[in-house]
Amino acid sequence: xxxxxxxxxxxVVITGLGAVTPVGNSAKDTWAALxxxxxxxxxxxxxxxxxxxxxxxxxxxxxxxxxxLDAPLHPRxxxxxPLNQVLTQKDVKKxxxxxxxxxxxxxxxxxxxxxxxxxxxxxxxxxGVNLGxxxxxxPEMEAMHDTWKTGxxxxxxxxxxxxxxxxLLAGEVSLLLDFKGPNMSVAxxxxxxxxxxxxxxxxxxxxxxxxxxxxxxxxxxxxxxIGAFAQMRALSTRNDNPEAASRPxxxxxxxxxxGEGSVVFVLEEYEQAVRRGARIYAEVRGYGATADAxxxxxxxxxxxxxxxxxxxxxxxxGLGTMDVDYVSAHATSTPGGDGEEATAxxxxxxxxxxxxxxxxxxxxxGHLLGGAGSMGAFAAVKAIQEGLVPPTINLxxxxxxxxxxxxxxxxxxxxxxxVRAALANSFGFGGTNASLVFAKV
Length: 441
Hints:
CATH class of the largest domain: Alpha Beta
CATH architecture of the largest domain: 3-Layer(aba) Sandwich
Number of strands: 16
Shape: globular
Largest sheet: 10 strands, mixed
Helix content: 25-40%
Strand content: 15-25%
Structural class: alpha/beta
Strand order of the largest sheet: 7-6-8-9-1-10-16-15-11-12
CATH superfamily of the largest domain: Thiolase/Chalcone synthase
CATH topology of the largest domain: Peroxisomal Thiolase, Chain A, domain 1
């Protein structure tokens, strides 16, 4: 495993957070739920799942993308019309649900960063967006297909392509906030938003931009998605007890639970953040991206590719394994994947098992697919800021394979401790892996 040498000395920090998730419609509420070990998984309401053996999901609840902002924003300057709400009712019809969720999370992150008060001093051409989505507008595809089948071509909406195209979230956020730098969308399955954050940080580090909005979004709780994952025997069928269904590392886990939502970060060049007096949550210290080249839907034995991603991220960070206090694991609650990742973590952190906490927040949120990487990164960053490791809930009987690694999976209750640095993993179909290292400033 070769050491990766950084190509730039520019530091990258996180100055804004936004979240719309199954456990909360803001970053504040999402963290409160994670810290309390509160599940957001319940019976599916977005469609009638009768006849499917998996009938539960992590849905976003009571979500209104047209709600007025707490305070108006002025991304185009004080002399231009303010941004008072993220989306209008017309916008809701025009965009897919993943864009609704992601736009709200991105605007929250922007407002949280405090950048708005400094826009007159900042160059919009040095501010970019990298927001990923795994499957795009699947609900809108299913609905429009039904419309076409019953009403013909004339009933197809002229907004259909805008509803489903994966990069339209990044495009809409760029328009809303007047970010004129790089504008792109990563699509790498469940590693999507891990890669988006890593690539956005790299753009700042090499000097392309000063600010990036980065993260991911997903909304695919639909008959086809649930049905397809169920046919793969990948989903939990614990329909009678939804809150206990997602149980990473537990011997009785029976599959993952699909979730929806968006988590978004504002990344910023360190010196600029300091000059404007920004609150800094954490520093992005390292990023590793690898491929298993083994199987399209299963981790390599011992999660060998995942281990290489972690090592690459650590090498780039300049930190050692003893400096890391927490791993926010991918931990989907699948019978095979949890053990393989745990083996990889134990291999990489072989000299630090006594101090290291590992946890899987999908036990509470379900699996956000394209939003999973940023959800796991959120847990890592907040753990650093708050000095609190969120738990793996529903962990009552650790799988012997996982127990044999000797890792502490932070069962059922949060742990108060100093977190100097944390690593977040996200892996996806196609054998794609992303690891991120964050640290205190």
